[in-house]
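Q: Got a minute? One more chain.
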Amino acid sequence: MIASSLGYSHTGDGYTLWHLLAVAAAVCATGLVCWGIWLMTSDSSSPNAARLARESRLRNGDAGDFATDRQNMVDHQLRARDITHPEVLAAFNRVPRHRFVPPALEHLAYSDEPLPIGYAQTISQPYVVALMSQLAQPKRHGRALDVGVGSGYQTAVLAESCDEVYGIEIVAPLAEAASRRLAELGYKGCSLPGAPI
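A: Always. Here it is, folded:
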């Protein structure tokens, strides 16, 4: 874990947003990590996760053309390999990946490859995002920190399983676009400091 490698330990009272941002900023500033996620449990009792699940069903209704592609991605790229965490698999079935890639690349959104999103950045291939999510072991009523938000796809995947997701992105136009996209898709439990939500 990022925090434990920097000598920060969990006291049982939960991490504050400022602790998380300070650790993430220190890691980014030292160049040790350019992209990663950190998940921890909290005592949050917000109903955000259940609300997101309901909204997910609604927003995927307009993406029927991609439903089969999304299911094939889950079955052949994730489940057929070593992704077994039920929350992670369910999140991948709900998050419309094609909304996180440039329109010209939507037809490749569910392929097992990274895709360019502009500013010399990419959206990671689905398997990599799933593996990181599974290793983080997302939990309901949990919090997650997504360092290097990019287009916001990993943030959305985590938001399907956690009540709160905090994201950091140093490329301002990507942060702003990700913030708008997450809001349009109904992910209200996501916070990207410095980007309008």
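A: The domain at 2-6+15-191 is CATH 3.40.50.150 (Rossmann fold).
Q: Perfect, thanks.
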